Amino acid sequence: MIRNSNIFRLFLLLVSLGTSFFAQSANKLDSVRIWAAPESTRLVFDLSQSPDYSYFTLKNPDRLVVDLKKSSSKVDLGKIKNNSKLVKKVRKSTPPEKGTLRLVIDLNKPVKASLFALPPTAPYGNRLVVDLDSGGAKAKQPAISKPKATTKLRDVVIAIDAGHGGEDPGSIGPTGIYEKKLVLEISKKVAQKINATPGMRAVMTRTGDYFVNLNKRSEIARNSKADLLISIHADAFTSPQPRGASVWVLSMRRANSEIGRWLEQKEKHSELLGGAGEIIQNTDNEQYLAMTLLDMSMDRSMAISHNIAGDVLSNLGRVTKLHKHKPESASFAVLKSPDIPSILVETGFISNPKEERLLSQRDHQNNVANAIHKGVLKYFEQNPPVNSLLASKSSIEHKVRSGESLSVIAQRYQISVSKLKQANNLKSNSIRIGQKLIIPRA
Ligand SMILES: [Zn+2]
Predict the structure, then answer these.
(1) 360 with 283, same domain?
(2) Are residues 318 and 407 in the same domain?
(3) Span from the CA of 371 to the centroid of ligand 1 (angstroms)
(4) Ligand 1 center to residue 273 CA distance, Å?
(5) Can you give the pLDDT at residue 387?
(6) Cα(221) to centroid(ligand 1), Å
(7) CA 397 to ligand 1 centroid distance, Å
(8) pLDDT at 360 over 80
(9) 3 C-alpha vs ligand 1 centroid, how far in Å?
């Protein structure tokens, strides 16, 4: 009896060892996320372990087949959220061998696929990233407008960079609001205001909830010949107390404030989260390179950046608390486009419960966007680039839009209502939609 039960126990032990051994060797697909960008789509497979994978494409119809060795899945693939124009659906298929998980991505057109695995980066674990690019459309940057036939004068182009996106939520507020969402909302408002300003045009580095790596962000700005890049963020700190907006410019040295160092670290973490596939270097070596190669244009860009940062900051100070009253500097990679003046606006601290609430309110977002727009407009009106429409005009024309009053327009261009009335020979304060007003230079 005793012997038998011992053998039985041994048997149980072997069985449990066996199953736990198998459980550890088998990779599990835990979830699938699909992030759609205008011309590309990223699929992310969350896995319990680093994947052993292979893939190939098939035609008629277009498919991408991904084999994950020693893997299984309990994900209901029919229930994945999918707003991609490239991906029809993801499904399981008969594997070439037992134990392999074969996933088929049904496509709407041929794509260029690149796959890479990412190590765990909090809050994510092991990931297999599948980047699908439809190409073609890339050559045509919608951002670049056709030159006008009648005149060579150009618009001042402002690249607006909503931080984070897709896999990278950015900071997360105490009630769970994502920075990537707030900053996209604010960025869109800034873009609208820029586009409504004669002589100015906005280009956005992202227009939806997808990740764009730092190189790509400055590439978009450069391709559209941007005069300025504004990166928009809402930050968080380890404690809930810090609050207020701040404006940052590039420094060749490491940040000397605690929050500055924290932000630099977070930028690196963001790239890892978003899955840039490469880590930003911040070595002395790189700084040396930057210093030697970029001297003149960098100096010029940095001087301009400082000026604009000051104008934006003073306008922000009228609508929100300021964290610091002077532009601060840190070594952010997103600001490192030597040829393009760049600023980074922290619209507030999402980790501060009060500011988290404020930043998600439409009115406040509007105020912040207005302040950014005003600061930028002030700078470029006073320092219009040669060949720009702004430089050519001693005055600007403004077409009255719904909801605008004389005082709103006067405020936008930072002139007095009486000056505005005088320039337009207005006897009363009433204006109509579509009316064209001359805005005298401040
Ligand atoms: Zn951020």
Answers:
(1) yes
(2) no
(3) 19
(4) 12
(5) 84
(6) 18
(7) 36
(8) yes
(9) 65
Q: 146 falls in which pLDDT band (50, 70, 90)?
A: very low
Residues 206 and 212 sit within 8 Å (Cβ to Cβ): yes
384 pLDDT exceeds 80? yes
Residues 207 and 270 grouped into a single domain? yes
HSE-CB at 396 with a 13 A cutoff on CA atoms is 28
The confidence band for 113, taking pLDDT boundaries of 50, 70 and 90, is very high
On whether both 243 and 373 belong to a single domain, the answer is yes
Q: Give residue 380 CA to ligand 1 midpoint distance, Å.
A: 26
Q: Kindly give the distance from the C-alpha atom of residue 50 to the centroid of ligand 1, in angstroms, as a whole number.
A: 28
Q: Are residues 173 and 276 in the same domain?
A: yes
* 289 in any annotated domain: yes
Range of the domain at 210: 156-382
pLDDT recorded at residue 301 = 74
Q: Would you say residue 339 lies in a domain?
A: yes
Q: How far does the centroid of ligand 1 lie from the alpha carbon of residue 177, in Å? A: 13
Full-prediction pTM beyond 0.85?
A: no
CATH code (residue 420)? 3.10.350.10
Q: What is the pLDDT at residue 271? A: 67
CA 302 to chain centre: 22
How does DSSP assign 284-324, residue by residue?
Answer: HHHHHHHHHHSHHHHHHHHHHHHHHHHHHHHHHTTTS-BS-
Distance 69 CA to ligand 1 centre (A): 36
Same domain, 431 and 373: no
Q: Percent of the chain scored above 90 by pLDDT?
A: 48
CATH number of the domain within which 58 lies: 2.60.40.3500
Residues, Cβ < 5 Å to ion ligand 1 = 163, 170, 233
| DSSP 8-state code for residue 196 | T
